[in-house]
Amino acid sequence: MMDMSTSEKTSLDIFRTILDLGPLSLYSANSKTKFPIGTIHRHIKQLQKKGMIKVYESKIKGRKKIQYGPTLYGLIYYYKQDKKIESLIQNYFLLWIEHKEFQKELEKEGFDVKGDLKKSKTIFQKYMKYFSAVEDQLEKIKHGDSVISRDILILISSALLSSEPQYQKLWQELYQNLPGMRKSLDEYMKNMISSYKSFKRKYN
To answer: Domain coordinates of the chain in residue numbers?
Structure first.
C-alpha cells in the first residue's frame, strides 16, 4: 500500500468494509468497524462526495435505511492502494454485479452483465488495472510528478480551455497567428489520429 495519511487510511478502511460486507448503512458500518459514528458519518459523506460510493436501494424489510455501496470509480481509485482489493477484484465483480446500481455502471461501460460472467470478470480485472494506472497518472500530473512533457500538458489543457466560450476566440486567434503553436498542435493531432486509425483497423 502506498503511503497514506491517517484520514486516507480511515476512508480506505470504511470503503473496504462497505465493499466486503455491504451495502451498509451508517449504523451497520459503525457496528462492523472500530470507528465512532461521527468519524464514519464524515468519511461516508466524503466518499460519496468524491464519487467513490453511492446510495444503493435497501433490501431490508420494514423501515428503509440509507445504504451505501461502491462505484466503479471507487474501485478504480483504491485498486492499487490496497493489495486485498487488487487480489480479490474478480470476486468483488461477482459479488457486486448482483446489485442493479453496480450493474448500471458496468452496462454503461459496455460490460456483459447477463451472459458470460467468467469472461466479463476477466475483462473487469484488466479494466481495473488499466484505469487505476490512468488514475495514478492523473495524480502524478496533479502533483507535478508526471513524466508527460510540459508541451503535451499545455496542449491538453489548451484543448480543454478551447471548449469554454470565453477562451474559444482567443484560442482561434492564437492558432491563426502563431505558426509554432499551430505546428505543435497539428503534429500532435496528426499523430493521435494516425494512432486511432491504426487501432480501429486492428479491431474492426
So the answer is: 6-142, 150-203
- The answer to whether the beta carbons of residues 26 and 32 sit under 8 Å apart is no
Bridge partners (DSSP) of residue 68 are 24, 55
Please spell the DSSP secondary structure of 22-42, one letter per residue: -SEEHHHHHHTSSS-HHHHHH
Q: Which three cell numbers stand for residue 187?
A: 503534429
Give the contacts of 151 (CB within 8 A, at least 6 positions apart): 184
Q: What interhelical angle do 72-79 and 89-96 show, nearest 10?
A: 170
65-78: per-residue pLDDT in tens?
Answer: 899 999 999 999 99
Q: Which fold has domain 6-142?
A: Arc Repressor Mutant, subunit A (1.10.10)
Q: What is the mean pLDDT of the chain?
A: 86
Global confidence as pTM: 0.78
- The neighbour count for residue 66, using CB atoms within 10 Å, is 13
CB 77 within 8 A of CB 135: yes
Residues 30-42 have a mean pLDDT of: 92
Q: What is the mean pLDDT of residues 182-194?
A: 84
